[in-house]
Amino acid sequence: MTLPIGPFAAPLSATCIRIRRAGLTPRVLNFANAYLRKDPLISRAFPYLREASRRTGETVNLTRLDGAEIVFVTRCPSSTIIGADLVLGWRLPAFCTA
């Protein structure tokens, strides 16, 4: 896939040790935020995630299967200090998850 240079992509600096010549700009986050705001599954599931987190005291994640991977789409963090720092949008192989 070729990524054109424009408002959502910019040339990488000369000091960057990457083979690719372009990277995403922060403007691409507009697409991610629009997805999160418009996804009906997230708005329907969040009260249940919050309740599960409250009852268990643990972080509860909502993921979506995308091919052979899962994508973290929202989470309700626990009140404990120690926890896995998984970022929304991160992907993991589905076979490695519960």
Topology:
Elements: E1 9-11, E2 22-24, H1 29-38, H2 40-56, E3 60-66, E4 69-76, E5 91-93
Antiparallel strand pairs: 1-2, 3-4, 4-5
Structure description:
The chain has two helices and five strands. The chain has 98 residues and is an alpha+beta fold. The chain has one domain (23-96): 2-Layer Sandwich (Beta-Lactamase), CATH 3.30.450. The strands form two sheets. Strands 3-4-5 form a three-stranded antiparallel β-sheet. Strands 1-2 form a two-stranded antiparallel sheet. A hairpin with a 2-residue loop joins strand 3 (60-66) and strand 4 (69-76). The relative contact order is 0.13.
Give keywords.
single chain, 98 residues, alpha+beta, Beta-Lactamase, 3-stranded antiparallel β-sheet, two-stranded antiparallel ribbon, 5 strands, globular
Short description:
This protein is an alpha+beta fold and 98 residues long. The protein has helices at 29-38, 40-56, and strands spanning 9-11, 22-24, 60-66, 69-76, 91-93.
